[in-house]
Amino acid sequence: MTVEVIRAAGLAGIAHGFLGRRGGVSTGVVAGLNVGSGSEDNPAAVAQNVRLACAAVLPGAAMARVYQVHSEVAVVAEEWAMDERPRADALVTDRPGLLLGIVTADCAPVLLADREAGVIGAAHAGWRGALDGVTDAAIVAMEGLGARRERIVAAVGPCIGQASYEVDEGFRERFLAADPSNARFFRALPTPHFDLEAYVLARLQAAGIGAIEGVGLDTYADEQRFFSYRRATHLGQGDYGRQFSLIGLAP
Q1: Phi, psi at 246, each rounded to 5°
Q2: How far apart are CA 210 and CA 153, in angstroms?
Q3: Which superfamily does 5-248 belong to?
Q4: pLDDT reading at 189 higher than 90
Q5: pTM flag (> 0.70)
Q6: What is the pLDDT of residues 80-93, one digit of tens each?
Q7: Could you tell me which of 231, 230, 241, 215 has the C-alpha nearest to residue 33?
Q8: DSSP 26
């Protein structure tokens, strides 16, 4: 099966893609394009999936990844070895030929670009990182390389949808304490359900960037297309795959 690459209209002309599980070589509960080194998958299969993913977005490019920890930390990307990756959840670059990679399994991947400046970024926005401002940190880091926020376009990729994201009152109260207007991102069904994509889009809009979009795809609800940590937990599978979101500047 061919690697599926989901692209955002606002990032047209820039090598990028939100990838799911289609087109990889892994088997079992992580069948497909699993790129999660933290899974119990065969490391050789994970490495092959990483190669397939990169080739589908920017063939021949080098890869930069971070050790994701649900933080608001953004760094300038380098070709770190896997065991030397900094603990961060966003990375930026102005270097052609370097793919930025973010791994998710329900959290929101965010890809950003200022075409004129030749600066790109990628962020991993779980609820904690999103609330703490990881997308704001990514934008500031891009500005440090010469980007201007009014020129930045951003896209939020597949993540857990509101209908699938049941939370408790303590979770909801965290967001209301930060800003009472965050109540609009919760719906009672009858327990609270959180709209992660809408929240991340709102944070990007509040940052004053040029354009934003969301792909509107629910990782939990589509088992054939996406990995999902929450779905795997609910099914008692014991392991789960991770999917890539990638962006790079062509050499």
Answers
A1: -130, 145
A2: 6
A3: CNF1/YfiH-like putative cysteine hydrolases (3.60.140.10)
A4: no
A5: yes
A6: 999 999 999 999 99
A7: 241
A8: B
